[in-house]
Write a structure and sequence with these properties.
Layout: H1 6-17, E1 25-29, H2 35-44, E2 49-54, E3 64-68, H3 74-84, E4 89-94, H4 104-125, E5 126-137, H5 142-152, E6 153-159, E7 170-178
Parallel strand pairs: 1-2, 1-4, 2-3, 4-5
Antiparallel strand pairs: 5-7, 6-7
The structure holds S-adenosylmethionine (SAM).
């Protein structure tokens, strides 16, 4: 079984977009409890590798290197970059979501801040054919974020898996092939 129902969202997106291939190096941001990492590790096996980061602990998984800490903390980012050993990444996944305060404007701002940091990380580490899948929340800020993605990637696609219907404001963007800077 999978560690969370989030699994079904990634399975559905991967079914359509064929993101995960054997041999890939994948970074999974906001990975706990680890369902996306389970799927990614199985699909990139035997030669690929998954690097999973979360503030919360992730019970170990074969083929997955876990980094525990806050992605907005520079020492944690450094630990992730250390684990990558200077090698590029084929796919960056970010299912990060802030703890919701219930104040919509605060929650949206926090969420876009995480999404922007994830984008900066992706642009720094992706291969020229790489891809970036990121969770966002519909509301003010989404158009500006989409524009950032469009200036950074050759292709940007919205993805709303059926499995995330209940969490109605949640949406994913898939950026493919970072533009040369
Ligand atoms: N994709 C995961 C899975 O398949 O099991 C579920 C991810 S859950 C929706 C969102 C995660 O983002 C939470 O585990 C939370 O701890 C993490 N998160 C939120 N903000 C974070 C941050 N600043 N640094 C690291 N992780 C963060």
């Amino acid at each position: 079984g999978y560690r969370s129902r989030a699994a079904y969202k990634l399975l559905e997106i991967d079914e359509k977009d064929r993101l995960l291939q054997p041999g890939m190096r994948v970074v999974d941001l906001g990975a706990a409890p680890g369902a996306w990492s389970q799927i990614a590790a199985a699909r990139v096996a035997p030669t690929g590798k998954v690097f999973a980061l979360d503030r919360l602990p992730i019970v170990s998984l074969p083929g997955v290197t876990v980094i525990q800490g806050d992605f907005t903390d520079e020492t944690v980012l450094n630990a992730l970059e250390q684990a990558l050993e200077g090698q590029p990444v084929d796919l960056v996944l970010s299912d990060m979501a802030p703890n919701l305060s219930g104040i919509a404007i605060t929650d949206a701002a926090k969420s876009f801040h995480l999404a922007e940091l994830a984008l900066a990380f992706a642009l720094e580490h992706l291969t020229p054919n790489g891809a970036f899948l990121v969770k966002v929340f519909q509301g003010p800020g989404i158009d500006a974020y989409r524009q950032q993605l469009q200036s950074a990637f050759h292709t940007v696609l919205p993805r709303k898996p059926k499995a995330s219907r209940s969490e109605s404001s949640e949406l994913y963007f898939l950026g493919k092939r970072p533009k040369r800077r």
